[in-house]
Amino acid sequence: MDSEVVVVYAREEPPQSWDAAVFLAGPTPRGPGAESWRPAAVDRLRGCWAGSGRLVVFVPEHRHGVHDDYRGQVDWEERCLHLSDEIVFWIPRDLRTMPAFTTNVEWGMWHDSGRVVFGAPPQAPKNDYLRHYAGKFGVPVSTTLDGVIAAALDRIGGGAPRTGGEREVPLLIWRLDGFQRWYAAQRGAGNVLRGARLLWHAGPLWGMRVAVEVAAEGRVKDNEVVFSRPDISVVVLHRPGPTLDETVVVLVREFRSAAATADGMVHELPGGSGPADPLRNAVEEVTEETGLVLDPARLHPHGARQVNATMSAHRAHLFSAEITGEELAAIRGTGPHGQVDLGERTYVEAATFAEIRRARLVDWATLGMIAEALTTVRPRG
């Protein structure tokens, strides 16, 4: 597709494909003689769009002039705000002709979305509160229209081609490895993304409601939520006993807010997310959470699987390592470990495989990983 900029005005239907989408949020003239700032913004976007595909610009004004008929306007704006990769808030507030009261509400809804830029002339009144929250959430800020447009385009870069339901996945999620891996699996199964609504995100963590056409069933399933985080590495450190049940496994005890346990603590395997290399991550997590330094050559890989495939798209890369009696004694009962200054505190414990099962020390996913490791790498007496 050749480079182009397509302007979509209020209540007009968005095109079925694009590489990037921008919404021009801000005050609309309400008094005689006041001119809209949006034509200048569109001109700037046309002149600066450097992508090789299509940039869509949503303009919440009527194509043939500003008017006060808002039937369907709110629904249209809500839809197009969610479709946008970047929302440009330019607020040349004038309390007489462009009071921007509605803009204040929109800013409150989107200021922490991770896809807004904020701009206002220095002399525009009543913007200090908005600027405060822009600073608090790291929103790019400019005092010129050119500057705020440049900030939006800088984050968009060249965009990414999307069509149909893919348009509803904003670039900040589309570009994540976790999303692309999940989506590649769906496409590989012949499924089609018919719709999406981003519910929450924090860096590489995200949650999204999706509508997926299930090829094998000839239907659209639209009542599920997908969560994702970076893949994790998990390590089963074990000291073989005479039998499988007598094999000792190293666990770490840690407070987890989601734990529905009597003391709010969970028993889990050393592990977590980190660098892209799962093996390196595994070694670092063991050291961080137990204090044990392992040669990577000692770790046996067991592959990667989803941990909770009914809801979360991330995978656990499972490793195991046999440890000596001296190593077990040295780390048993130690702590706190982890990134203590960031609130992570882990304490090393150990239990036999039989104790883990009978005392219900771990959740089902963790129990499955332990069973996989211990039955694949046979314990030695």
Question: What does this protein structure show overall?
Answer:
The protein is built from eleven helices and 18 strands. The protein is an alpha/beta fold and 381 residues long. The chain has three domains: 4-156, Rossmann fold; 176-228; 232-376, Nucleoside Triphosphate Pyrophosphohydrolase (Alpha-Beta Complex), CATH 3.90.79.10. Helix 1 (38-48) packs across helix 5 (145-156). The chain is elongated.
Q: Any chance you could write out the topology, listing elements then pairs?
A:
Blueprint: E1 4-9, E2 17-18, E3 20-25, H1 38-48, E4 54-59, H2 73-83, E5 86-90, H3 101-110, E6 116-119, H4 128-136, E7 141-142, H5 145-156, E8 162-163, H6 171-174, H7 177-188, E9 192-202, E10 205-214, E11 219-228, E12 232-239, E13 248-255, E14 265-268, E15 271-272, H8 278-290, E16 300-306, E17 315-322, H9 325-331, E18 347-352, H10 353-358, H11 364-376
Parallel strand pairs: 1-4, 3-4, 3-5, 5-6, 6-7, 12-17
Antiparallel strand pairs: 2-8, 9-10, 10-11, 12-13, 12-15, 13-14, 13-18, 16-17
